Each structure stands twice: as structure tokens, then as C-alpha cells.
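Sequence in, structure out.
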Amino acid sequence: MRELFWLSEGQFLRIKPHLPWPHGKKRVDDRRVISGIIYVIKNGLMWKDAPIEYGPPKTLYNRFVRWSRRGIFKKIFDALAAEAGETDTLMIDATHLKAHRTAASLAQKGALHARSGGPKAA
């Protein structure tokens, strides 16, 4: 069984002041949608693979794109980082890239050397 991620009430209350005011129609539950966005990004999923408990994947995607373009998430991150103050901790990005299984054979075929622009090995 999968473990779904849900923002706690306290966590949501900390970011709520930084969310944009709704215009026109009432938005669907912000806490549910933001939890879904975090779940998708945290697990490296495609939007269409988001669990149904977070609502329609299109809603998650549209909200993420719209708010990213408007800088809403940056504003939230900046505000939360400012609350933390100075720390002695340094974070290192542990991002990794997935390569197609045929990528491992490129070095053997000489494809990497041909593209580098450098001299070819004799």
C-alpha cells in the first residue's frame, strides 16, 4: 500500500498567507492540491500517475504551472527560508538523472568521443 503525503494543518497554515486570493470561482481544496503536487514531485511521477485521492491530475498540473509562472512557490520557499534564520547546515543537491538502458553502450560504440569535438583516440 502506498503512503500518501498530506500537509499537516500547521504546515498548511504557515503557507496559507502566501497563496493568491481566489478570483471568481471558489478553488478546490488548496491543502489537497498542494499535497498532491508535493507527492508527484517527491516521487518523480508523471502528473497522470498522481493518486486519485489528490483530485484530478489536470488540476494538480494546471495549479503547479500557473503558480510556478506567477512565482507563488518561490514566494512560499523564500518566506519559509526566512523564518528559519541562519543555520550551520549545508544542503547538497542529490538529484540524479535516469538514462535509457542503451546509453551505457554509447561509450563502447564511440558515440561519446565523436560528439565531444576533441581528438579521437588512436
